[in-house]
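Q: Is it fine to ask for two folds in a single conversation?
A: Yes, each is treated on its own. Send the first.
Q: Here.
A: Result:
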Amino acid sequence: MKIVLPGGTGQVGTVLRRALTAAGHEVVVLSRRPAGRGEIAWDGRTPGPWTEAVDGSDVVVNLAGRSVSCRYTPANLKEMMDSRVDSARVVGEAIAAAARPPRLWLQMSTATVYAHRFDAPNDEATGVIGGAEPGVPAYWGYSVDIARAWEREQERADTPLTRKAALRSAMVMSPDRGGVFDVLSRLARLGLGGPVAGGAQYVSWIHDHDFVRAVEFLIARDDLDGPVNLAAPSPLPHRAFMRALRGAWGVPAGLPATRWMAGLGAFALRSDTELLLKSRRVVPGRLLDAGFAFEHPEWPQAAADLVRRVRAR
C-alpha cells in the first residue's frame, strides 16, 4: 500500500513510518523541513505539489500539529490550535480534490478530549468530554477545544469515498530518544520519579507496538469510523504508573513532588503541568469490541519491554 503521513517526522510519525516501511509499504512523509528520501515539502496550510502524493494513495494518516510539550502560553496554544485545524482542513481539501482518493483517512486526535475524572473510565460511547470540569485550571478547557476543533475539521470534510476515523490517542510509549518514555525514564533514574501531587490522577498510555498494530487493524477493517480510543485497556494512577517504571529500571524509590514542585519542574523542562496533573482515564472500547487484542495491556510488563529495548540499543 501507499501510505501518506502528513507531519510524520515527530515521535509518533517516526514509530509509524519505521514499522510500516519494514512491513513493505510505500510511505511518503509530508514535512515542513523535508530532509531525505520519501519526504515531500508542505506547509500544513495550503495546497501544493504535495497533493499529488495524496491522489492515488491508499491511506492518509495525518499526524501534523505543534508538539504539546511546551509552555501553554497564549501564543503556543494558538499555534497548537492553528497547526491542527489548518492541516486537517487542507488534507481534507486534497482528498476531496483527488481523482483517486484514498480509501481511509486516519486523523490524529488526543485522549485529552475527555474530562479530568477519577470515578470511571472514558470510552467512546459513555466517556465524558471535558472542558467544564470544576476545580481545574481554566486553560485546560482550551486543550479540549483544540481536540474538538481538530476532529470537527475532519468530520466536515466532503470526502464521501474516503472512510474517516479520529485517533484519540493516549501517550505513545516508545524507546526513542526525546519521547515521553525517555523523559519519564530519565526522571525515574535520577530518583525523581515519585508521585506528583499525591499521584491519584490516572495515566493513559499505549505501547508503540500496539499503537502500530491498532493503526494496521483500522486499515484492515472497513467497518470502523469516527472516534477510536488508542489506549491500553489498563490506565492506572500516576503513583502506580511511576512505581512500575521505577521497578523496570531497578530504582527502589522516587522523590514525591507537590503541585508547586511539579510547576517548577515543568518550567525547567519547558512543558506544562497539565500533562502531569490531568487525570486521563481512557479505555479502548471500540477496539476491544471489534476484537483487537493488545500485546501489552498492562503497564508493568510494557515498561519492562521498553526498558529492555532501551538497554539493547
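Q: Second one now.
A: Result:
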Amino acid sequence: MPDVLVLVDHDGERVHRSTYELLAAARRLGDPAAVVVGTPGTAARLGKDLAHHGATLVYAAESTEADRFLATPAVDALERAARDASPAAVLVSATTGGKEVAGRLAARLDAGLLIDVADVDASGVVTQVVFGGSYTVRAQVTHGMPVMALRPGSFEPEEHPVRAGERELALPPIDPAASARVTARRAAPAGDRPALTEADVVVSGGRGVAGADGFKVVEELADALGGAVGASRAAVDAGYYPHQYQVGQTGKSVSPQLYIALGISGAIQHLAGMQTSKTIVAVNKDPEAPLLGLADYSVVGDLFEVAPALTQEVTARRAAR
C-alpha cells in the first residue's frame, strides 16, 4: 500500500493525542509514515509510541534549528518526504499552525488542499466543515496529491503495533529573512484538566456566564466530568476567560464525545469550532438561541441553577460507584 505522511505533533517528549488520531485516519488510505520534526534525538524518543499506533516508517527530520522557526521546518520536511515517497496523501492536524503548514505545503507541491476534514474514506473522499461551519460537504482532490488538515477529535486513536523503520530526512538551511523566528517560549498554565483539543468532554461558557467569576460554575462541571473548559469568543473578548480556551472559527476546533454549552447563543463563528462534537448539550435561558436547535439535548433555563445541579448529580453518581 502507498505511504500516507503524517506530521507528528509533539512537545519533544510526548506525542500528542491528535497525532494518534491522524495515524488512525491514515490507515484508511495506506501505510502511515510519521514525520517527526525536531532537534536531534526527538524521533528516537517518540518512535516507539508512533509504532505502537501504526506508523510503519518514521522520518527523522532533525536539526538544531528545527524549533527556532515557525512552520518552515515542518513544510520543508513534508515537502522532502513527499517528493521522496510520492504518498497517497499528507495529513496534519487542523490547528492554527497545522493549517498554515498544510497551505504552504500544498502551494509548494501544486497539490489539492482540504481543510477542517471531519471524516475520510478509503477512496480519499472527505467530509468537511466549510464556510465557517455553515455547510458540511463531501469533497475529493482532483489535482495533485491530497494535503488534508483533520479536525482534532474527529477520529478515535487506535493501538496498532507494528515494526517501524526509521529514515533520516535532512532539512535544508533556513533563510531567516524569509521565515518567522521564535524569540521566546512561555508555557501556558495547564492545570490538571486535559488539553482542550484532546478532551473527551468539553464544558464551555459564553456571554451568559456574565463575568469571570461566573466561570466557576463552568469549571466545577468540567472538573466533575473530568473534562476541559472552553469559552466562546464573546466571553473571551469580554475578558471572562483567557484567549487560549476560545472555541470557534478564530479559536480552537474541538470534536469531543460530549460538548456542554452554558450561556452560549450559538453564533456561526462558535458553531464552526464545535458542531462535529458527538453529543451536544446546550443550556440557555433564551428559547430562541440558535444553539438550542443544533443541540442533541436543550435546556431552557438559568445556567446558574442548571449547571450546579448537573455538577451535584454527576458527583453523587461517581461517588456511588
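Q: Anything structural to flag on that second result?
A: Two points. Residues 93 and 150 are 5 Å apart (CA to CA). The first helix runs from residue 17 to 26.
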